[in-house]
Amino acid sequence: MDRAKELELKKIATEIRKSIIIQTAEAGSGHPGGSLSGVEILTYLYFVEMNIDPRNPKDPDRDRFVLSKGHASPLLYAVLAEKGFISKEELKGFRQIYSNLQGHPDMKKVPGVEMSTGSLGQGLSVANGMALAGKLDGKNYRVYVLLGDGEIQEGQIWEAAMTAAHYKLDNLTAFLDHNGLQIDGKITEVMSPEPVDEKFRAFGWHVITIDGHDFNQIEKAVSEAKTVKGKPTIIIAETVKGKGVSFMENEAGWHGTAPNKEQAQKALEELQKQLESLEVQG
Amino acid sequence: MAKIATREAYSQALAEFGELYKNIVVLDADLSKSTRTEIFKKKFPDRFFNIGIAEQDLMATAAGLATCGKIPFASTFAIFAAGRAYDQVRNSIGYPHLNVKIGASHAGVSIGEDGASHQMLEDIALMRVIPGMVVLSPSDAASTYECVRLAIEHEGPVYIRLGRLGVEEIYRKGELKLELGKGIVLQKGTDVGILATGLMVHEAIKAAKMLQEKGISVYLVDMPCIKPIDAELVLEVAKTAGCIVTAEEHNVLGGFGSAVSEVLVQNYPVPVRMVGVNDEFGRSGKPEDVLKYYKLTAEEIVNKAKEVMKLKK
């Protein structure tokens, strides 16, 4: 990836981080931690990789993205707004009674949302269904899904992992947002799913591990996944929960707690500084 | 006349409609010999997916297929479809109102020897409270065929309740035309109304004959569509007969009788007696013995009819 492109993506990512803070602060609820950790992944998918068109959100040939960890909705909404599926004005209504932006994404209410999610563990199965349909119809679209590392404690994930391998869904790429934290603490202390790479490999997947905040590594992994034939790929993205906001980083407490006014102010100032330093570089 | 189970009729119908509707796909969870979906599998191997013993994955995979324009028929036993995979049916099918059809076989106690763990007696209750879910419960082969047709023609989630036991023909295929939200009047009468669904329609027909031999005039209705319920017909029966007996192979709590009562109590209250399983789990036994044990019989419908007629104002 050339430097200018990377810089541009970094700026978009920082804007999305600001939006996550603003949405959750305005709503007084929501999930900032796990939204901030997946920013680079979604930024890359939506602004580089995926064949999607906000003017034609139901194009049958489009690539699909399923946010299996549906609580990271502020991240998805921020990306959809930045991409033009919804207006930025709408983001102010996040989690409010008259808004379409539900606490967890609702595909019937928001264009660009491919699946209603929120009940953990179901998104990978849904993505499998989309990938199976693509194979049946001889279509070239690809299906992406973002899983949480706490989420894979759900047994259904492993049912779906079997199905994806059994049906050789090489048009499916899963990302694991491996930030190591869930509501009650470290995933390894609550209920360890480790070693996740070996588990997925044993289930018949092609496994790639990357730094989930590095656009170059994301790009390389996504390209590699497209060359893999006969099996699905999982990209284990090592990430930091709360990434980009110093006092939120690696704190399980920021899983489902919104920042108050002062905290939001502080976070936004930090992010603004990051943006300005990117401007200087660019 | 050969008896045909509704599960068998369901899979035959799928194989037949599969010719016409190329976007029908069938999914099963390692029960294709029991649900009989192997009939479809043999004919359309490319459009059949065995998901293995994984009902949660089965339901959500069907949801994903539906988002891409397929009409998935997710087929397994009712206990697993409505029970084990309830959250997937609610959140990944019902809530996004996806075009998934759930073929739930082996419902009720009449599966017999397998016993309580496999005898689903709560599925009508569970499915009808999911907003937008259509709940169908056919009584014979022809009505099953029609229910499959209605499911295909309806855009949205549909639950079809099917039985394992062979049942006699009530209707001739080709002569029956079902409408969504409509019951089937088998005969009109003025003394008591009997509304039945699924397997219990057969007992209701016998009960009506027994009552008529005693000079009692019965308004007899088969209700293959539990949701949306034919409120108009329920009220017509209430107004004409003045009292109602409901019959279902299901827990009386939250089931078909409850659905009928909800309509009555809000519009035209008349006395009701319910024939069904009285808040119990099932037990092992020969299907006929289990049905008798739980009083899912024509005799019990007759008893309840006599009781309820005494309560008429």
UniProtKB/TrEMBL annotation, chain A:
Entry annotated with the keyword Transmembrane helix: no
Keyword Translocase: no
Cofactor(s) named in the record: thiamine diphosphate
Protein name per UniProt: Transketolase
Family: Belongs to the transketolase family.
Originating species: Caldicellulosiruptor morganii
Domain Transketolase N-terminal residues, every copy: 11-267
UniProt keyword terms in alphabetical order: Thiamine pyrophosphate
Automatic annotation (TrEMBL), chain B:
Cofactor: thiamine diphosphate
InterPro entries: PDH/Transketolase, THDP-binding, Transketo_C/PFOR_II, Transketolase-like_Pyr-bd, Transketolase_BS, Transketolase_C
Domain Transketolase-like pyrimidine-binding as annotated: residue spans: 4-170
UniProt keyword list: Thiamine pyrophosphate, Transferase
Highest taxon of the lineage: Bacteria
Protein name stated in the entry: Transketolase family protein
Taxonomic source organism: Caldicellulosiruptor morganii
Origin organism lineage: Bacteria, Bacillati, Bacillota, Bacillota incertae sedis, Caldicellulosiruptorales
